[in-house]
């Protein structure tokens, strides 16, 4: 074969490789690799004879009825294939959502396939393969939403969140997951679950409200008096470096002494353990994001706007309330978002000092070596933080659009 004849196939191969690599999505390649490992190398579900014994991992194909496994695998592989190549964000969003929904439905079919009717002792739990699939397609959905952010807008993102909540709610109300061990743990602890959930929300929102009441005026003072800010912000930054467990511990002794010496405080619930030390610790953790974002927000207001307000005869108080704080609100709300998401997680640790919340289930599960009881506390905590972040992000964007 001539040199020209040999060069032509090499050129064709090089062109084909360029086309393939050009259409390959790097994130999609990682997602496809995770999906492949989850389907073929990791167990999809775990079967245990009872609540306390260790279980046996079952592969995707063994854990499900043949027909469900085939249809589910087709949807999962199709989603991974769409993720693998560059394409429209809307198609990637639809594929990721469909595959994620399929995975959630499939795990609910496992108990009916593996557990004999009337067997109340057997436990079916999600294994590594299930969580890897959830992680992979959640990343695909998140990436698609991020690329569609300008096109979707905050209202559309809230609609996507509402749709996701409806899907999960429909699965829960249908009883599809009732055979899973985590739902059996919920059935056992249903009353305390909602009580601890209410306490969790109260501590997270209560500490946020306290941080706004203290931190917003302090932030204004730090912005007006730079010397005060030069002292306050470093101190609050040091507070952030204290581990949460240590912070809760530091609160216990002083509050126990105060409650012992001042019975009136003990009468309103202040003690060395319980919600009081947790609330104070959360307040201390919350101050830096609030104070810092108030300072940054006020510093970012154009001087011409402030001068125009002054020229209109507005007093310093009127300028602050009617002009400066409204303009700084998107930045301030960004700090609020940080605080709320942070505190939702930190409340879980507060269960160590008897504050309640979903952390109670995490501690009980760890003490009993009951993974599903840990999940009963961890999954709602993650869901609360996720929803709070999306809601506040949308609120920040809506306010920013109105100001623009």
Give a structural overview.
With 404 residues, the chain is mainly alpha-helical. Helix 7 (149-174) runs antiparallel to helix 17. Strands 2-1-3 form a three-stranded antiparallel sheet. Residues 1-5 and 14-20 have low confidence and may be disordered. The chain has 17 helices and three strands.
The structural class is mainly alpha
How many β-strand stretches? 3
* Mean pLDDT metric: 87
Give helix and strand order, one letter per element, not per position.
HHEEHHHEHHHHHHHHHHHH
In short:
The chain has 17 helices and 3 strands. With 404 residues, the chain is an all-alpha fold.
Descriptive tags:
404 residues; mainly alpha; MetI-like fold; 2 domains; three-stranded antiparallel sheet; 17 helices; disordered N terminus
What is the fold's blueprint, element by element?
Elements: H1 3-23, H2 26-40, E1 45-48, E2 56-58, H3 60-63, H4 66-84, H5 89-114, E3 123-126, H6 128-147, H7 149-174, H8 181-188, H9 190-224, H10 226-240, H11 244-261, H12 263-267, H13 275-299, H14 303-311, H15 316-349, H16 359-368, H17 371-403
Antiparallel strand pairs: 1-2, 1-3
